[in-house]
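Quick one, T. Sequence first:
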Amino acid sequence: MTSWNRVEIDLAALRHNFRQLRELAGPATGIMAMVKADAYGHGLIQAARAFAQAGAVTFGVAELEEGIRLRQAGIEGEIVVLLGIDRQGAAEAVANNLTPVVYDRDCLEEFAAQAVMAGCRRGVQLKVDTGMGRLGVLPGEFSALAAALNGLPSLYLAGVLSHLPKADMEGDESAPAQQARFLELLAEAGLAGNHPVRHIVNSAGLLRYPELRAEMVRPGITLYGCYPAGWLKGEAALKLKPAMRFVSRVIQVKDIPAGQGISYGHRFVTNRPTRLAVLPVGYADGYLRRLCGKAEVLLGGKRAPVRGMICMNACMADVTDIDGVGPGDEVVILGRQGEEEIGADELAAWSDSITYEIFCLFGSCNQRIHLKEEE
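Structure tokens:
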């Protein structure tokens, strides 16, 4: 049995996007393919394999469990655990040859001890907070953490990173100063001459600041065919391909008279005789209530407005002006049908959100199939 709803992932589009970014970054700059959060809803293992086929050798995950799953699936290369590890996870990180991001001396020492017990030498990446106000050691503590690492022979410095909080904000030019501070901290810690792999640039930074790319960049949303902000579409000569399409089927078509309330609360009342298509899509499928009154779907290659409150497992589309709609017809929630397309950025605007959330919601809440598995 399969669901009415399915999310289709075009793996060829993922490979295409990686190659586009590979060309943009240039031959001297490595790419960490961000596959955290189940590859932004696109499927952790399948997306990582697609990027590996396109040339990726470094992958970024959020948690230890994701890295272990990639290793069990046969993914080679460096896998960086961006949220780091706790003392309990150190042995598994060593056993699976994962590279944790470290911002805590206790975890650094436990990881070193586990590497000694395993008879191996493992890499770590140190993260310093240069303005994001999120994860990372504070600037005043960075030199001490680097010195502590230098005293642990079972570990080596695989990289140093920070994060840009405002690179996607039009008119903001704080990123160069933030990177300058990042490089100052490396020099203060005695790391400038050791040439560690440095990376601070995300998708927006990659598009805007060629001079900040250093040894590695960390694209995320661009790998999946979207831009971190609409105004950035013209910042680089990229031809990205959206990889996710969310489709469903009509399960009932019914004629409603004028003056009839629709769905919970009757917040929408028909002002004419109306033909409604009932769709088995609701907030349990990631199609959130905040889309009410704004969202549209595609039926027969035409746009149909969603009417009334979106329910847990259903919503209604007005197909009065679309001839021939019947049960079983394909409905596109996200993606292209004929000459029309509903993009993730449009859905994000309707829901007062961002494309990242749209992808994660749809990908995690629905049956997912992967197309064009092989090259």
